[in-house]
Design goal:
Elements: H1 6-17, E1 26-27, H2 28-34, H3 41-49, E2 62-63, H4 80-88, H5 101-104
Parallel strand pairs: 1-2
Helix pairs in contact: 2-3
Length: 108
């Protein structure tokens, strides 16, 4: 199977992330696989990094495979904004800062 161009992949990422409902999360790897680029989770992270924090794209609903918020130097190494937005949507973090992906993981 031929993979799409990186521009097409990036558009798929944004369209897919907009489908994640409030109160649910997906992982970077899950988004990559659903867009036809398995094993390209870092590209998903890079694409979402380019989204403005106040964008209509719910970038905050994508977390790492451990169910944690990945640190971003763009936000000064503090990702409280992402966590705050998720908690405001009803997503619960445990004491170790993890989200239960079985409970809050989005299954399209």
């Amino acid at each position: 199977m031929q993979q799409p161009s990186s521009h097409t992949f990036q558009q798929c990422i944004y369209q897919l992330v907009q489908q994640i409902p409030c109160g649910y999360v997906a992982t970077y790897g899950q988004v990559a696989a659903l867009c036809g680029w398995p094993r390209h989770a870092r590209f998903v992270g890079y694409a979402l990094y380019q989204v403005a924090p106040d964008s209509e794209i719910p970038w905050h609903r994508v977390v790492n495979a451990q169910g944690k918020v990945s640190l971003s130097w763009r936000r000064g190494g503090s990702d409280e904004l992402q966590r705050w937005r998720l908690e405001a949507e009803g997503v619960v973090f445990n004491a170790n800062g993890r989200i239960n992906l079985r409970r809050y993981g989005w299954q399209p």
